[in-house]
Design a protein that fits this description.
Length: 114
């Protein structure tokens, strides 16, 4: 199925601000510059712009690369890490928190391992 992220074993968040005008090639270049490698089939890469109300997700599929785009319709923002421009691996739990509008760091979460 096109754009099925459920099979990804790794999730990487590109912290900081990303120019949301970039397309697949531009976002792949960011991943290559930051990680020194091409995007791989078992990973998804998350990008967010200045306004924090939309995200882009890169997903490599067997026959090409898919770009998923999500814009919030409600008033709200993603709590995107802005500390620096780096690539940070996150868990599925952190991904769920992020998509729910929460910080990816939840020190009081049950079962959260430091």
């Amino acid at each position: 199925m096109i754009g099925d992220i459920s099979g990804a074993t790794s999730i990487y968040i590109i912290t900081g601000k990303t120019d949301m005008r970039k397309s697949i090639n531009g976002l792949c270049a960011i991943v290559y510059d930051m990680m020194g490698q091409e995007i791989n089939r078992n990973s998804i890469y998350l990008f967010c712009g200045t306004r924090c109300d939309r995200i882009k997700i890169l997903l490599k599929e067997p026959d090409g690369i898919t770009l998923l785009y999500k814009r919030l319709d409600v008033k709200g923002r993603y709590r995107w890490p802005r500390n620096s421009s780096e690539v940070k691996p996150i868990t599925w739990r952190q991904f769920d928190w992020l998509m729910s509008g929460l910080d990816i760091e939840q020190p009081k979460a049950i079962g959260n391992v430091k």
